[in-house]
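Same chain as my last thread, 501 residues:
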Amino acid sequence: MSHSPLTNSFAAIDLGSNSFHMVIAEPEGSSIRMIDGLRVPVRLGAGLDENKNLKKQTRLRALDALGQFAQRLRGIPLRQVRVVGTNTLRRARNSADFMDEAQNILGKRIEIISGREEARLIFSAVSHAAPDPDTQRLVMDIGGGSTELIIGKGYKPKLLESVNMGCVSHTTKFFNEKKVRSSDFKKASLEAQVELAPIARAYTDLGWSEVTGCSGTIKAVSRILVELELSDGVVTKDGLKALISAIDKAGSIEKLKLQSISSDRSAVICGGVAILHALVKTLKIQQLHASPVALREGLIFDMVGKAEHIDIQSQTLHNLITRFDIDTLQSQRVENAVVHFFQQVKTAWDLDEDTDLAELVWAARLHELGKAVAHTQYHKHGAYIIGHSDLIGFSMAEQKTLALLIRNHRRKIDLSAFEALRASEKVRVVKLLALLRLAVLVHRGRHTVNLDQFKLKVKENQLVVSAGVEWLEENPLTSSELQAEEDRLLLINFKLKTVRS
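reply #2:
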Protein backbone atom coordinates (compact mmCIF):
# COMPACT_ATOMS: atom_id res chain seq x y z
CA MET A 1 0.00 0.00 0.00
CA SER A 2 1.49 3.33 -1.02
CA HIS A 3 1.42 6.30 1.29
CA SER A 4 0.70 9.91 0.40
CA PRO A 5 3.58 12.39 0.67
CA LEU A 6 4.31 13.63 4.18
CA THR A 7 3.13 17.09 3.11
CA ASN A 8 -0.43 15.70 3.33
CA SER A 9 0.11 14.52 6.90
CA PHE A 10 -0.96 16.22 10.11
CA ALA A 11 0.63 15.48 13.50
CA ALA A 12 -0.69 16.14 17.01
CA ILE A 13 1.27 15.76 20.22
CA ASP A 14 -0.50 15.65 23.58
CA LEU A 15 1.80 16.22 26.57
CA GLY A 16 -0.50 14.65 29.14
CA SER A 17 -0.02 14.26 32.88
CA ASN A 18 0.42 10.48 32.57
CA SER A 19 1.61 9.82 29.02
CA PHE A 20 2.87 11.73 26.01
CA HIS A 21 0.98 10.79 22.84
CA MET A 22 1.58 11.56 19.18
CA VAL A 23 -0.68 10.70 16.27
CA ILE A 24 -0.09 11.24 12.58
CA ALA A 25 -3.06 11.26 10.24
CA GLU A 26 -4.21 12.32 6.79
CA PRO A 27 -7.54 13.81 5.70
CA GLU A 28 -9.84 11.26 4.10
CA GLY A 29 -13.20 12.60 2.97
CA SER A 30 -14.98 14.08 5.98
CA SER A 31 -12.81 12.02 8.34
CA ILE A 32 -9.12 11.23 8.85
CA ARG A 33 -7.00 8.14 8.27
CA MET A 34 -4.54 7.26 11.03
CA ILE A 35 -0.99 6.74 9.76
CA ASP A 36 0.98 6.28 12.96
CA GLY A 37 0.79 6.65 16.71
CA LEU A 38 3.31 6.77 19.53
CA ARG A 39 2.83 6.70 23.30
CA VAL A 40 5.48 7.19 25.97
CA PRO A 41 4.52 6.89 29.68
CA VAL A 42 6.26 9.93 31.18
CA ARG A 43 4.19 10.31 34.39
CA LEU A 44 4.59 14.09 34.28
CA GLY A 45 1.87 14.57 36.91
CA ALA A 46 3.81 12.53 39.46
CA GLY A 47 6.99 14.46 38.69
CA LEU A 48 6.22 17.73 40.48
CA ASP A 49 8.11 18.51 43.68
CA GLU A 50 6.63 20.22 46.77
CA ASN A 51 7.11 23.63 45.10
CA LYS A 52 5.25 22.49 41.96
CA ASN A 53 8.41 22.43 39.87
CA LEU A 54 9.12 19.61 37.44
CA LYS A 55 11.79 17.35 38.89
CA LYS A 56 14.98 17.01 36.87
CA GLN A 57 14.53 13.28 36.30
CA THR A 58 10.96 13.77 35.05
CA ARG A 59 12.03 16.65 32.81
CA LEU A 60 14.80 14.55 31.24
CA ARG A 61 12.40 11.64 30.72
CA ALA A 62 9.96 14.00 29.02
CA LEU A 63 12.63 15.50 26.77
CA ASP A 64 13.81 12.03 25.79
CA ALA A 65 10.25 11.18 24.71
CA LEU A 66 10.08 14.35 22.62
CA GLY A 67 13.35 13.39 20.94
CA GLN A 68 11.65 10.20 19.76
CA PHE A 69 8.67 12.18 18.50
CA ALA A 70 10.93 14.67 16.69
CA GLN A 71 12.40 11.92 14.52
CA ARG A 72 8.93 10.84 13.39
CA LEU A 73 7.93 14.44 12.62
CA ARG A 74 10.62 14.86 9.96
CA GLY A 75 9.11 15.86 6.64
CA ILE A 76 5.75 16.99 8.05
CA PRO A 77 5.22 20.76 7.52
CA LEU A 78 5.39 22.55 10.87
CA ARG A 79 2.14 24.39 10.14
CA GLN A 80 0.51 20.95 10.19
CA VAL A 81 1.88 20.09 13.63
CA ARG A 82 0.36 21.03 16.99
CA VAL A 83 1.88 20.36 20.41
CA VAL A 84 -0.30 20.95 23.48
CA GLY A 85 0.28 20.70 27.20
CA THR A 86 -2.50 20.05 29.67
CA ASN A 87 -3.02 19.92 33.45
CA THR A 88 0.52 19.37 34.74
CA LEU A 89 2.09 21.98 32.47
CA ARG A 90 -0.70 24.37 33.48
CA ARG A 91 0.37 23.87 37.12
CA ALA A 92 4.16 23.52 36.88
CA ARG A 93 5.93 26.70 37.97
CA ASN A 94 8.95 26.02 35.78
CA SER A 95 6.99 24.93 32.71
CA ALA A 96 8.45 27.83 30.67
CA ASP A 97 11.97 26.39 30.96
CA PHE A 98 10.77 22.95 29.88
CA MET A 99 8.83 24.47 26.98
CA ASP A 100 11.94 26.25 25.69
CA GLU A 101 13.87 22.98 25.72
CA ALA A 102 10.97 21.14 24.09
CA GLN A 103 10.68 23.74 21.33
CA ASN A 104 14.38 23.34 20.55
CA ILE A 105 13.82 19.60 20.10
CA LEU A 106 10.55 19.69 18.16
CA GLY A 107 10.99 22.95 16.26
CA LYS A 108 7.44 23.85 17.30
CA ARG A 109 6.08 25.99 20.10
CA ILE A 110 4.08 24.19 22.80
CA GLU A 111 0.57 25.50 23.46
CA ILE A 112 -0.66 25.13 27.03
CA ILE A 113 -4.43 24.86 26.69
CA SER A 114 -7.11 25.47 29.29
CA GLY A 115 -9.22 22.64 30.66
CA ARG A 116 -12.27 23.87 28.76
CA GLU A 117 -10.36 24.05 25.48
CA GLU A 118 -9.11 20.53 26.16
CA ALA A 119 -12.74 19.48 26.66
CA ARG A 120 -13.81 21.08 23.37
CA LEU A 121 -11.11 19.25 21.41
CA ILE A 122 -12.01 15.93 23.05
CA PHE A 123 -15.66 16.41 22.11
CA SER A 124 -14.67 17.27 18.54
CA ALA A 125 -12.75 13.99 18.24
CA VAL A 126 -15.62 11.87 19.61
CA SER A 127 -18.24 13.62 17.44
CA HIS A 128 -16.24 13.07 14.27
CA ALA A 129 -15.68 9.41 15.14
CA ALA A 130 -19.27 8.68 16.19
CA PRO A 131 -21.55 6.76 13.80
CA ASP A 132 -24.42 9.14 14.63
CA PRO A 133 -22.96 12.57 15.40
CA ASP A 134 -26.42 14.15 15.85
CA THR A 135 -27.07 12.23 19.08
CA GLN A 136 -26.87 14.31 22.25
CA ARG A 137 -24.06 12.70 24.20
CA LEU A 138 -22.09 13.04 27.39
CA VAL A 139 -18.36 12.68 26.78
CA MET A 140 -15.91 12.18 29.63
CA ASP A 141 -12.13 11.95 29.67
CA ILE A 142 -10.14 11.01 32.79
CA GLY A 143 -6.62 12.28 32.26
CA GLY A 144 -3.59 12.14 34.52
CA GLY A 145 -4.37 15.41 36.30
CA SER A 146 -7.84 16.53 35.22
CA THR A 147 -11.20 15.14 34.16
CA GLU A 148 -13.15 16.71 31.31
CA LEU A 149 -16.95 16.50 30.98
CA ILE A 150 -18.83 17.64 27.89
CA ILE A 151 -22.43 17.45 26.74
CA GLY A 152 -23.10 18.31 23.13
CA LYS A 153 -25.00 17.50 20.00
CA GLY A 154 -23.56 17.21 16.53
CA TYR A 155 -20.15 18.88 16.57
CA LYS A 156 -21.23 21.62 18.97
CA PRO A 157 -20.58 21.31 22.73
CA LYS A 158 -23.31 22.76 24.95
CA LEU A 159 -21.72 22.29 28.38
CA LEU A 160 -17.99 22.09 29.10
CA GLU A 161 -16.18 21.60 32.41
CA SER A 162 -12.71 20.52 33.51
CA VAL A 163 -12.40 19.18 37.07
CA ASN A 164 -9.01 19.21 38.76
CA MET A 165 -8.61 15.49 39.48
CA GLY A 166 -7.02 12.71 37.45
CA CYS A 167 -5.75 9.14 37.63
CA VAL A 168 -2.17 10.12 38.55
CA SER A 169 -3.07 12.67 41.23
CA HIS A 170 -5.82 10.45 42.72
CA THR A 171 -3.63 7.33 42.77
CA THR A 172 -0.79 9.22 44.45
CA LYS A 173 -3.12 10.66 47.08
CA PHE A 174 -5.25 7.63 48.02
CA PHE A 175 -3.52 4.40 47.11
CA ASN A 176 -0.58 2.50 48.56
CA GLU A 177 1.55 0.60 46.05
CA LYS A 178 1.81 -2.51 48.24
CA LYS A 179 -1.74 -2.99 49.50
CA VAL A 180 -5.03 -1.72 48.05
CA ARG A 181 -8.29 -2.01 50.00
CA SER A 182 -11.91 -1.30 49.14
CA SER A 183 -11.85 1.41 51.84
CA ASP A 184 -9.20 3.25 49.77
CA PHE A 185 -11.56 3.24 46.79
CA LYS A 186 -14.39 4.50 48.99
CA LYS A 187 -12.35 7.49 50.23
CA ALA A 188 -11.07 8.30 46.73
CA SER A 189 -14.54 8.02 45.20
CA LEU A 190 -16.12 10.19 47.92
CA GLU A 191 -13.62 12.99 47.33
CA ALA A 192 -14.26 12.79 43.59
CA GLN A 193 -18.01 12.98 44.25
CA VAL A 194 -17.45 16.12 46.33
CA GLU A 195 -15.51 17.67 43.42
CA LEU A 196 -18.32 16.81 41.03
CA ALA A 197 -21.19 17.98 43.25
CA PRO A 198 -21.18 21.70 42.17
CA ILE A 199 -21.60 20.82 38.48
CA ALA A 200 -23.67 17.62 38.62
CA ARG A 201 -27.11 19.28 38.50
CA ALA A 202 -26.34 21.23 35.33
CA TYR A 203 -25.35 18.01 33.57
CA THR A 204 -28.27 15.87 34.71
CA ASP A 205 -30.72 18.68 33.87
CA LEU A 206 -29.37 18.99 30.31
CA GLY A 207 -29.37 15.23 29.81
CA TRP A 208 -28.00 12.91 27.13
CA SER A 209 -28.89 9.88 25.04
CA GLU A 210 -25.56 8.09 25.32
CA VAL A 211 -22.29 8.30 27.23
CA THR A 212 -18.83 7.98 25.70
CA GLY A 213 -15.59 7.67 27.62
CA CYS A 214 -12.15 8.63 26.25
CA SER A 215 -8.59 8.30 27.50
CA GLY A 216 -6.34 5.51 28.66
CA THR A 217 -8.12 5.05 31.97
CA ILE A 218 -11.56 4.35 30.52
CA LYS A 219 -10.23 2.20 27.69
CA ALA A 220 -8.16 0.23 30.22
CA VAL A 221 -11.16 -0.30 32.52
CA SER A 222 -13.19 -1.54 29.56
CA ARG A 223 -10.49 -4.09 28.67
CA ILE A 224 -10.13 -5.23 32.30
CA LEU A 225 -13.88 -5.83 32.60
CA VAL A 226 -13.71 -8.04 29.52
CA GLU A 227 -10.64 -9.93 30.77
CA LEU A 228 -12.23 -10.58 34.18
CA GLU A 229 -15.47 -11.55 32.43
CA LEU A 230 -17.37 -8.82 34.27
CA SER A 231 -18.85 -7.28 31.10
CA ASP A 232 -18.49 -7.22 27.32
CA GLY A 233 -16.56 -3.96 27.58
CA VAL A 234 -19.46 -1.71 28.53
CA VAL A 235 -18.75 0.15 31.78
CA THR A 236 -21.54 0.09 34.41
CA LYS A 237 -21.86 0.82 38.11
CA ASP A 238 -22.19 -2.89 38.89
CA GLY A 239 -19.16 -3.71 36.77
CA LEU A 240 -17.05 -1.12 38.60
CA LYS A 241 -18.20 -2.43 41.98
CA ALA A 242 -17.21 -5.96 40.93
CA LEU A 243 -13.80 -4.70 39.71
CA ILE A 244 -13.14 -2.87 42.99
CA SER A 245 -14.10 -6.02 44.89
CA ALA A 246 -11.71 -8.09 42.76
CA ILE A 247 -8.82 -5.70 43.41
CA ASP A 248 -9.61 -5.67 47.14
CA LYS A 249 -9.67 -9.47 47.23
CA ALA A 250 -6.37 -9.77 45.35
CA GLY A 251 -4.73 -7.05 47.47
CA SER A 252 -3.41 -5.03 44.53
CA ILE A 253 -3.95 -4.53 40.82
CA GLU A 254 -0.63 -6.27 40.08
CA LYS A 255 -1.75 -9.49 41.81
CA LEU A 256 -4.62 -9.81 39.35
CA LYS A 257 -1.90 -10.46 36.71
CA LEU A 258 -3.89 -8.68 34.02
CA GLN A 259 -2.83 -9.13 30.40
CA SER A 260 -5.04 -6.37 29.01
CA ILE A 261 -3.17 -3.36 30.43
CA SER A 262 0.49 -2.36 30.60
CA SER A 263 2.48 -2.07 33.83
CA ASP A 264 2.68 1.73 33.56
CA ARG A 265 -1.11 1.91 33.20
CA SER A 266 -1.69 -0.46 36.15
CA ALA A 267 0.41 1.93 38.29
CA VAL A 268 -2.24 4.65 38.00
CA ILE A 269 -5.42 2.71 37.28
CA CYS A 270 -6.80 2.65 40.84
CA GLY A 271 -7.18 6.43 40.99
CA GLY A 272 -8.86 6.34 37.59
CA VAL A 273 -11.28 3.58 38.67
CA ALA A 274 -12.26 5.63 41.75
CA ILE A 275 -12.96 8.74 39.66
CA LEU A 276 -14.92 6.69 37.12
CA HIS A 277 -16.97 5.17 39.94
CA ALA A 278 -17.72 8.67 41.26
CA LEU A 279 -18.78 9.87 37.78
CA VAL A 280 -21.11 6.94 37.24
CA LYS A 281 -22.67 7.32 40.70
CA THR A 282 -22.95 11.14 40.77
CA LEU A 283 -24.33 11.52 37.24
CA LYS A 284 -26.47 8.35 37.52
CA ILE A 285 -24.90 6.87 34.38
CA GLN A 286 -26.43 3.54 33.35
CA GLN A 287 -23.64 2.56 30.97
CA LEU A 288 -20.82 4.05 28.96
CA HIS A 289 -18.80 2.90 25.98
CA ALA A 290 -15.08 3.53 25.48
CA SER A 291 -14.02 5.55 22.45
CA PRO A 292 -10.75 4.96 20.57
CA VAL A 293 -10.21 8.71 20.03
CA ALA A 294 -9.28 11.53 22.41
CA LEU A 295 -7.61 14.95 22.59
CA ARG A 296 -4.93 14.32 19.96
CA GLU A 297 -7.47 13.28 17.31
CA GLY A 298 -9.41 16.44 18.19
CA LEU A 299 -6.28 18.46 17.41
CA ILE A 300 -6.01 16.75 14.03
CA PHE A 301 -9.64 17.53 13.19
CA ASP A 302 -9.04 21.14 14.24
CA MET A 303 -6.04 21.49 11.92
CA VAL A 304 -7.78 19.76 9.03
CA GLY A 305 -10.76 22.06 9.58
CA LYS A 306 -8.53 25.13 9.33
CA ALA A 307 -6.95 23.78 6.16
CA GLU A 308 -10.50 23.52 4.79
CA HIS A 309 -11.40 26.97 6.19
CA ILE A 310 -13.59 25.59 8.97
CA ASP A 311 -11.97 27.75 11.61
CA ILE A 312 -13.27 27.66 15.20
CA GLN A 313 -11.04 30.63 16.10
CA SER A 314 -12.70 32.79 13.45
CA GLN A 315 -16.10 31.75 14.80
CA THR A 316 -15.03 32.81 18.30
CA LEU A 317 -13.79 36.17 17.00
CA HIS A 318 -17.04 36.71 15.10
CA ASN A 319 -19.04 36.00 18.26
CA LEU A 320 -16.99 38.56 20.24
CA ILE A 321 -17.30 41.18 17.49
CA THR A 322 -21.07 40.72 17.42
CA ARG A 323 -21.54 40.55 21.20
CA PHE A 324 -19.49 43.70 21.89
CA ASP A 325 -20.71 45.60 18.81
CA ILE A 326 -17.21 46.37 17.54
CA ASP A 327 -16.90 48.93 14.71
CA THR A 328 -15.96 46.50 11.94
CA LEU A 329 -15.05 49.26 9.45
CA GLN A 330 -12.41 50.63 11.80
CA SER A 331 -11.10 47.22 12.77
CA GLN A 332 -10.82 46.32 9.06
CA ARG A 333 -8.78 49.48 8.43
CA VAL A 334 -6.41 48.56 11.24
CA GLU A 335 -6.26 44.95 10.07
CA ASN A 336 -5.35 46.04 6.53
CA ALA A 337 -2.56 48.19 7.95
CA VAL A 338 -1.04 45.50 10.18
CA VAL A 339 -1.02 43.07 7.26
CA HIS A 340 0.59 45.72 5.01
CA PHE A 341 3.24 46.53 7.62
CA PHE A 342 3.84 42.87 8.50
CA GLN A 343 4.61 41.94 4.88
CA GLN A 344 7.34 44.60 4.76
CA VAL A 345 9.23 43.38 7.85
CA LYS A 346 8.43 39.66 8.17
CA THR A 347 11.64 38.48 6.50
CA ALA A 348 13.98 40.84 8.37
CA TRP A 349 12.30 40.01 11.68
CA ASP A 350 11.88 36.28 10.93
CA LEU A 351 8.15 36.40 11.66
CA ASP A 352 5.76 33.56 10.87
CA GLU A 353 2.60 34.14 8.80
CA ASP A 354 0.73 31.23 10.40
CA THR A 355 1.23 32.34 14.00
CA ASP A 356 2.56 35.91 14.26
CA LEU A 357 0.35 37.44 11.57
CA ALA A 358 -2.66 35.56 12.93
CA GLU A 359 -2.17 37.10 16.39
CA LEU A 360 -1.79 40.57 14.86
CA VAL A 361 -5.00 40.17 12.86
CA TRP A 362 -6.90 38.96 15.95
CA ALA A 363 -5.68 41.99 17.92
CA ALA A 364 -6.64 44.35 15.09
CA ARG A 365 -10.17 42.94 14.96
CA LEU A 366 -10.66 43.13 18.71
CA HIS A 367 -8.61 46.16 19.77
CA GLU A 368 -11.72 48.31 20.39
CA LEU A 369 -13.67 45.57 22.18
CA GLY A 370 -13.44 47.43 25.52
CA LYS A 371 -15.46 50.37 24.20
CA ALA A 372 -18.58 48.33 24.96
CA VAL A 373 -17.71 48.91 28.64
CA ALA A 374 -16.52 52.54 28.50
CA HIS A 375 -14.50 54.75 26.15
CA THR A 376 -12.19 55.85 28.95
CA GLN A 377 -9.38 53.31 29.37
CA TYR A 378 -11.11 51.03 26.84
CA HIS A 379 -7.83 49.28 26.04
CA LYS A 380 -7.69 48.09 29.67
CA HIS A 381 -11.32 46.95 29.63
CA GLY A 382 -10.72 45.01 26.41
CA ALA A 383 -7.62 43.30 27.78
CA TYR A 384 -9.50 42.27 30.93
CA ILE A 385 -12.36 40.75 28.93
CA ILE A 386 -9.97 38.79 26.70
CA GLY A 387 -7.81 37.69 29.62
CA HIS A 388 -10.76 36.41 31.65
CA SER A 389 -12.95 34.83 28.95
CA ASP A 390 -13.16 31.27 27.68
CA LEU A 391 -11.93 31.83 24.14
CA ILE A 392 -12.86 28.60 22.41
CA GLY A 393 -10.17 27.51 19.95
CA PHE A 394 -7.37 29.56 21.53
CA SER A 395 -4.46 28.31 23.63
CA MET A 396 -3.72 30.00 26.95
CA ALA A 397 -0.56 31.56 25.46
CA GLU A 398 -2.47 32.94 22.47
CA GLN A 399 -5.11 34.39 24.80
CA LYS A 400 -2.43 35.96 27.01
CA THR A 401 -0.63 37.51 24.02
CA LEU A 402 -3.89 38.83 22.59
CA ALA A 403 -4.79 40.47 25.93
CA LEU A 404 -1.32 42.02 26.14
CA LEU A 405 -1.52 43.47 22.61
CA ILE A 406 -4.99 44.93 23.23
CA ARG A 407 -3.94 46.35 26.62
CA ASN A 408 -0.95 48.15 25.08
CA HIS A 409 -2.17 49.13 21.61
CA ARG A 410 -2.45 52.81 22.64
CA ARG A 411 -1.12 55.33 25.12
CA LYS A 412 1.40 54.43 27.81
CA ILE A 413 2.81 50.91 27.69
CA ASP A 414 2.37 48.72 30.77
CA LEU A 415 5.94 47.52 31.37
CA SER A 416 4.91 44.98 34.00
CA ALA A 417 3.06 42.97 31.35
CA PHE A 418 6.34 42.24 29.59
CA GLU A 419 8.35 41.27 32.67
CA ALA A 420 6.79 37.80 32.92
CA LEU A 421 7.61 36.94 29.28
CA ARG A 422 10.56 34.76 28.36
CA ALA A 423 13.30 36.69 26.56
CA SER A 424 12.61 35.27 23.09
CA GLU A 425 8.85 35.70 23.50
CA LYS A 426 9.30 39.29 24.68
CA VAL A 427 11.26 40.19 21.53
CA ARG A 428 8.55 38.66 19.34
CA VAL A 429 5.61 40.32 21.12
CA VAL A 430 7.30 43.72 21.17
CA LYS A 431 7.66 43.59 17.37
CA LEU A 432 3.99 42.68 16.95
CA LEU A 433 2.95 45.43 19.33
CA ALA A 434 4.98 48.03 17.42
CA LEU A 435 3.17 47.12 14.19
CA LEU A 436 -0.25 47.17 15.87
CA ARG A 437 0.37 50.56 17.50
CA LEU A 438 1.47 52.03 14.15
CA ALA A 439 -1.64 50.67 12.43
CA VAL A 440 -3.95 52.12 15.10
CA LEU A 441 -2.09 55.43 15.12
CA VAL A 442 -2.32 56.12 11.37
CA HIS A 443 -6.07 55.36 11.47
CA ARG A 444 -6.90 57.56 14.45
CA GLY A 445 -9.04 59.73 12.16
CA ARG A 446 -11.23 56.66 11.46
CA HIS A 447 -11.07 56.97 7.69
CA THR A 448 -9.28 54.98 5.01
CA VAL A 449 -5.63 55.89 4.51
CA ASN A 450 -3.47 55.18 1.46
CA LEU A 451 -1.08 52.66 2.99
CA ASP A 452 1.27 52.62 0.01
CA GLN A 453 2.85 55.84 1.23
CA PHE A 454 4.14 54.08 4.36
CA LYS A 455 7.39 52.20 3.83
CA LEU A 456 8.91 50.16 6.67
CA LYS A 457 12.53 49.04 6.74
CA VAL A 458 14.56 47.30 9.39
CA LYS A 459 18.05 48.71 9.87
CA GLU A 460 20.05 46.81 12.45
CA ASN A 461 17.89 47.03 15.60
CA GLN A 462 15.78 49.93 14.41
CA LEU A 463 12.48 50.15 12.53
CA VAL A 464 12.45 53.07 10.09
CA VAL A 465 9.03 54.29 8.96
CA SER A 466 8.96 56.51 5.88
CA ALA A 467 5.78 58.54 5.41
CA GLY A 468 4.71 60.95 2.67
CA VAL A 469 5.55 64.61 3.38
CA GLU A 470 2.22 65.95 2.09
CA TRP A 471 0.21 63.47 4.15
CA LEU A 472 2.13 64.29 7.33
CA GLU A 473 1.58 68.04 6.74
CA GLU A 474 -2.14 67.44 6.20
CA ASN A 475 -2.29 65.32 9.37
CA PRO A 476 -0.25 67.21 12.00
CA LEU A 477 -1.80 65.26 14.90
CA THR A 478 -0.62 61.95 13.45
CA SER A 479 2.78 63.44 12.65
CA SER A 480 3.15 64.53 16.26
CA GLU A 481 1.95 61.14 17.53
CA LEU A 482 4.53 59.33 15.38
CA GLN A 483 7.28 61.38 16.98
CA ALA A 484 5.93 60.70 20.47
CA GLU A 485 5.71 57.00 19.63
CA GLU A 486 9.48 56.83 19.34
CA ASP A 487 9.80 57.67 23.04
CA ARG A 488 6.98 55.36 24.12
CA LEU A 489 8.49 52.33 22.37
CA LEU A 490 11.92 53.04 23.81
CA LEU A 491 10.47 52.04 27.20
CA ILE A 492 10.32 48.46 25.92
CA ASN A 493 13.72 48.72 24.23
CA PHE A 494 12.30 49.15 20.75
CA LYS A 495 13.90 51.73 18.45
CA LEU A 496 11.55 53.49 16.03
CA LYS A 497 12.45 56.29 13.65
CA THR A 498 10.02 58.24 11.44
CA VAL A 499 11.35 59.98 8.32
CA ARG A 500 9.59 62.04 5.65
CA SER A 501 9.67 60.77 2.09
